[in-house]
């Protein structure tokens, strides 16, 4: 009589009825307030599990294809670490020039290839809408790891989780976004995501040519969130709970002279931060290229290195969710 093989490392099978089983993660627009609480709950559990066990076998036997058409340190390596901490394994494609992409293979064909070998695909691509295109052709879940100047939903989720873990709430906060708000996809996603919470006030501080896109402002405004634009930080820093600093994205500028004219517009250093409260935090998706002075790194309000670690727990949660284990 055939017996059902049992694996002591897999206490439960894939739960095909789990709310996020098999789903793509393409945009923060997919997440309601309750969904966000759910993600943060799972991520918090992942944090506890990593602190207690380091690695455990929730996703043993599962394979992630990590497909990066643009450079990445944090997103790529944290998805790899997340999968390996959950006992799974990773196909890393971070130098597409060594893959068949360099022979002209299309994104749909590349995705259809990788899903023959993997259970989930993480994709970073320079074109807005590329993750949605990949998801259209893939039967396996696709997770958007940044699509051009579009969205970076897993970054926004980890940013919000950072705020939750650091400040204990996501309601009744003044969040000031600073720097390149035009090309910074992380701020587009984070502004949309924070609009799910009550008592949120958003300040946008940027050079005139790098203002937050109108479509993001209109979308967030439709949720009743107060937003205001500034070109100086001094006006809003004393009332800020979260200062979210972004890099001016050199690679998105066609005219490098324009980049040079705005790249040093804002620099956070200990002197500037004298005007800020002691119980606020400073975040940055990183990498930074001078917009936060290293002299500020030892300040307890500098949360940007802790933020990267929170990203590991959120990405563990997302992988477990789409693979039916959470
Ligand atoms: N924050 C972020 O997306 O960093 P990487 O570009 O290094 O992945």
Supply database-style keywords.
326 residues; alpha/beta; Rossmann fold; five-stranded parallel sheet; 9 helices; binds phosphoric acid mono(formamide)ester
Describe this structure in words.
The longest helix has 21 residues, at 33-53. The protein has two domains: 28-151 and 311-322, Aspartate/ornithine carbamoyltransferase (Rossmann fold), CATH 3.40.50; 153-308, Aspartate/ornithine carbamoyltransferase (Rossmann fold, 3-Layer(aba) Sandwich), CATH 3.40.50.1370. Mean pLDDT is 93; it is low at 1-11. It contains nine helices and nine strands. Helix 3 (107-114) crosses helix 4. The protein is of the alpha/beta class and 326 residues long. It has helices at residues 33-53, 74-85, 107-114, 130-137, 153-167, 185-194, 214-221, 256-262, 304-322; strands at 63-68, 89-93, 120-125, 142-147, 174-178, 201-205, 227-230, 242-245, 281-283. A five-stranded parallel sheet has the order 7-6-5-8-9. A four-stranded parallel sheet has the order 2-1-3-4, sandwiched between helices. Residues 72-76, 146, 155, 285-287 line the site of phosphoric acid mono(formamide)ester (CP).
